[in-house]
Amino acid sequence: MSPASASGSLTPTGTIATSSDRRRVAFATVVGTTVEWYDYFIYASAAGLVFSQLFFEPAGPGVGTILAFLTVGISFLFRPLGAFLAGHFGDRFGRRIVLVVTLILMGAATVLIGLLPTYSQIGIAAPILLILLRILQGVSAGGEWGGAVLMAVEHAPRDRRGLYGAMPQIGVPIGLLLASAMLAIMNIIFPGDAFLDWGWRIPFLFSIVLILVGYWVRRRVEESPVFTEIAERKEQTGAPIVKLFARFTPLVILAALVFAGNNAVGYMTTGGYVQNYATNPEGPVGLDRGDVLWAVTASSVTWLISTFIAGWICDRIGRRTTYIFGWILQGAALFALFPLVNTANPVLLASGLMLLTVGLGFTYGPQSAWYSEMFPASVRFSGVSISYAIGAILGGAFAPTIAAWLQQTTGTSTSVTLYLVGMTVIGLIATLLLRDRKGISLRPGDEEEQREGIYIWEPASAPKP
After folding, report:
1. Distance between terminal CA atoms of the chain?
2. Is residue 13 predicted with pLDDT exceeding 50?
3. How far is CA 65 from CA 69, 73, 127, 315, in A?
4. Burial level of 149, CB count in 10 A (0-12/13-18/19+)?
5. Which of 69, 183, 193, 439 is the most exposed place for a label (fewest CB within 10 A)?
6. Stretch 291-295: mean pLDDT, rounded?
7. Are the C-beta atoms of residues 237 and 92 closer than 8 Å to each other?
């Protein structure tokens, strides 16, 4: 038995990667992405529940709701900026430093939102400051995901990239779970107007604790072995983004559309739309705020489980096949979602959301591994991050705003369902145009293989042993 098989496996640089090393990386990616997305989702949930009243009150309930959701969406427009910056510095100077910086930026913006005066206190300055802080969250989110994904996947054994890549993915539903649970608990501790006065602020201020934990964990993780080899070979690309778009623009677009199909649907809950729709006293449902928050919390658990299972199973049946199965589940669940929500029964509301998150998990769990295997090593951070950011704009950025507008314009949730089904079909088509590249080498020395067989109209490349 070789030393590598006895105590771990060889990294691209020839060093031994032990199982304890990989567990530490997996734990760090879960913790880091949980902190980042807790911060991001706590804003989106609060936008649907309180921001229309506290920061956009003069616009009236209907327009105020749309404006609040627009502040959720506007941050997506700045995700590409974060992705461009993170991709540039991540491909030149490493994955780890980018992850630490994005974590601090996101946390600082979140804490400051928790301290922000409302419109009744400082007037128009309140929504302006709110938007500026949300933009900072968008820049951070744009840079966070790609770095976390590559740290997980580039440390992973070749036959378990899907499982390890699912680690940063499950940090997203955990973040939603924590955000929804914190708001639900605050709703109990601070009922009625007390929630509007102070209750909503505490989950934002709690972020400072999460930042300290996430920072400590991420500082203990070694740099990605793939980037370490790139640095040792002195092969860092001087302008990775230029190289990316010069050679791989169609791939960036298709990868973005894959994520858009998932993200538009996911932002019905993570973007706060369902929370607002189901709690609006003038709407068709009118449920208690606490019931809705607990339903979203329950759906976060099923999203977490299905995301993890999808990451595990895609190592066996392939990324593309797992995605196709997920698109079918997601589309079917969409037709059941609003009929269940419109019953105004908290249990049926939770059931509808939980059904939906199964499909969401299967179109999200394999994403880390598939994206990492799509792009050559020298532009991988840029390719993964920018595709993700563009997909977020096309998908989730204004999905809650569009859904709110469709509901108000047509007077029926059917129009919202058709919009989301359309986005699901777009994701499916993009998936069908790309090849599965499970097991392809990620090493910088194998870029010729990595540039071949990306699309279905190209011959498939044969993975090297």
Report:
1. 19
2. no
3. 6, 13, 13, 42
4. buried
5. 193
6. 88
7. yes
At 433, the pLDDT band (50, 70, 90 cuts) reads very high
> For residue 317, how many other CB atoms are within 10 A of its CB?
15
d(CA 70, CA 357): 24
Angle between helices 79-93 and 380-394 (to 10 degrees): 170
How far apart, in whole angstroms, are the C-alpha atoms of residue 319 and residue 323? 6
pLDDT tens digit sequence for 346-367: 999 999 999 999 999 999 999 9
The H or E element containing residue 390 is helix 380-394
Rounded to whole angstroms, what are the CA distances from 374 to 107, 369, 380, 416, 455? Answer: 31, 9, 8, 32, 10
CA separation for the pair 455, 193 (Å, rounded): 55
The closest alpha carbon to 319, from 432, 157, 421, belongs to: 432
Q: What is the pTM of this model?
A: 0.80
- CB distance 221 to 151 below 8 Å: yes
Alpha-carbon distance of 44 to 113, in angstroms, equals 12
State whether residue 18 is helix, strand or coil.
strand
pLDDT tens digit string along 220-269? 666 566 656 655 554 555 567 788 888 899 999 999 999 999 999 988 77
Q: Report which residue type is found at 223.
A: E
Tokens found for residue 50: 């309180």
**Rounded Cα gap, residues 142 and 77, in angstroms:** 10
Q: Which pLDDT value is given to residue 225?
A: 61
Structural tokens at position 307: 């995301």
Tokens encoding 107 = 């946390």
Token pair, residue 179, equals 């955000």
Q: Cα–Cα distance between 96 and 31 in angstroms, integer?
A: 14
Would you give the DSSP letter of residue 224? Answer: P
Task: Locate 356 and state its tokens.
Answer: 């939906």
